[in-house]
Amino acid sequence: DAGVIQSPRHEVTEMGQEVTLRCKPISGHNSLFWYRQTMMRGLELLIYFNNNVPIDDSGMPEDRFSAKMPNASFSTLKIQPSEPRDSAVYFCASSPSLTGVTGYTFGSGTRLTVV
Amino acid sequence: DAKTTQPPSMDCAEGRAANLPCNHSTISGNEYVYWYRQIHSQGPQYIIHGLKNNETNEMASLIITEDRKSSTLILPHATLRDTAVYYCRVMNNNAGNMLTFGGGTRLMVKP
User: Which range is most confident: A43-47, A78-82, B92-96?
Assistant: First the structure.
């Protein structure tokens, strides 16, 4: 298995533009998580899905952020409009179940820079 | 989830054992101890977890004290590639308890 695949690896965009980050979880994993990492705030959980259904989005910072999981093999995190303070590394992770007993597998991340 | 306390940084000589401590004095009976690490510019990586007994896998060993209030992650022969931030987390395996990160120990393996 290729692991959790995220795209793009790097994204540079201008303030006000829409940004879409993509994630392909490991096949067979039923839970998917989006995290954001910055120097100031560390690694924060934004939202997670189970069986393609959003379970808790309380970590999403603002209404400008939205996430979808249209099927078991694909998820997107969208920021519209983007702002410079959204600059961060965004990680996607998947797990066989919500309980995480076997550990989460993280992707390599998308480094977003909003100028 | 119980709170964990880790030293902010540690050094280790290459080839020697790295022993990373974690305190979790408020751990509950159904909570597991998990260890992850994050190598620079990479996503966090699962290392090992345990409930009561000591655990070992190809990456590391986990020693949990009898009272379960603390644990130690052991990298038996540290290499330069083990330089990373190591996170100790305590969580039960009920649905709804998600993995969160904060703190951690920055391990520097030196030649």
Answer: A78-82
